[in-house]
Records
---
Amino acid sequence: MNRIIGPQATQSDISVATNPALEVKWLTVDEESAGQRLDNFLIRHLKGVPKTHVYRIIRSGEVRVNKGRASADTRIEAGDVVRLPPVRISDKVAEKAARPAPAREFPLLLEDDALMAIDKPAGVAVHGGSGVSFGVIEQLRQARPLAKLLELVHRLDRETSGILLVAKKRSALKHLQDQFRERETGKTYLALVQGSWPEKLKVIDSALHKFLLPDGERRVKVTSNDDPEGMRSITLVKVAERLVGCTLLEVTIKTGRTHQIRVHLASQGHPIAGDDKYGDFEWNKVLQKQGLKRMFLHAWRLQFTHPLTGKRVELKSNLPSELQLYVHHAQSKLQSAPSSV
């Protein structure tokens, strides 16, 4: 027997119902969802259905807005009526739907009616997908079942810790995402890199190109600025502290590309400590023996304009204890090193 909708479904688990007249749904867009892209609206309502299937039913015309065809990037408005076709999944997938993400709250740096800023720990994805059943946003929604809306404003890599913004109102989400897109936010990270970073190297302006490995895993590489598939990417670098064999950097990104900091720093011959994708793997083994068992990249400072008050906000997240301990260890090595004559 097949059931309707469930998480982590694969294409083979899904089929359109044979009697759509009985099971088609019509959703009226409320004020809170106004201005949202159609694909994001559907992904929210078809929880667990793969995004590839969501885009397929949009392209096929099975999804209608006010009885007309629409594209994935169509902006829906309050009062719009969206036709949602029935989607069936197997019992196996339906059983998984009965096991939602575990409810979890995260340390708060700021919370008000419009947004919340959490201090994300390393090792936690921001959302489910790509082999991850759930992430920060799914756990927050389980912990706050009465919240009308909780949406990620931006993203952090799973291995990166630090400040993550979550919107509680649709208007705040749009306002904040516009700021990120227009580069009106200030995003500064702390990164420990291999070797002595050149004092004069303060700006990295190199295009980045995303590609897939044979096993389907995503990677990013530096490419030429005239590469039609490259995305211009700008990273500002400031030396915070020089240590034995490594340098602590303050890194500000002016563009928010996938793996931007990791790839840009590694491309200069100074990979981030503990980076298992773009790092120095032999150095990482040494670091693990010294107690550093994660990537040393932390979203330390975030500046933005508050969507309700219009005031400029600056948030800071202290280095997690495991990173702070390693800095202390490196500082001790520096102090005990013999001075040059």
---
Amino acid sequence: MVTVDAVVFAGDGADPSIALIARRNDPYAGSWALPGGFIELDERLIDAAARELREETGLAGVALEFVGVFDDPDRDPRGRSISVAYAGRIAGTPPALHAADDAAAAGWHRASALPPLAFDHAAIVAQALARLRSACG
């Protein structure tokens, strides 16, 4: 299974907000997670990440950049799954999020106070934060 995940940062400073969704379905129903999901057979990975972000949070037009590939064999209890993660940044005040599709809720959470995350999403966030901080100097 190939999936994508999107880490979207908002705000300025050392403690940005991150867009998260509460999962509607198992596995991890009710847990917070990054917006993401399975790719369609006819789409590129980055397009899948943008689509999942839009479907689950209402965010569109966020420029996404490659973060990394996450391939721990046990990362998904449904079976072997490889995720390709992307990150983007929104300057200024975070826009309202609108949960839909596989998301029961959506909200902004400070990087310094994230809730427990589903799958290996804490590792994805950590890598994306490291890239953000190195890019900002």
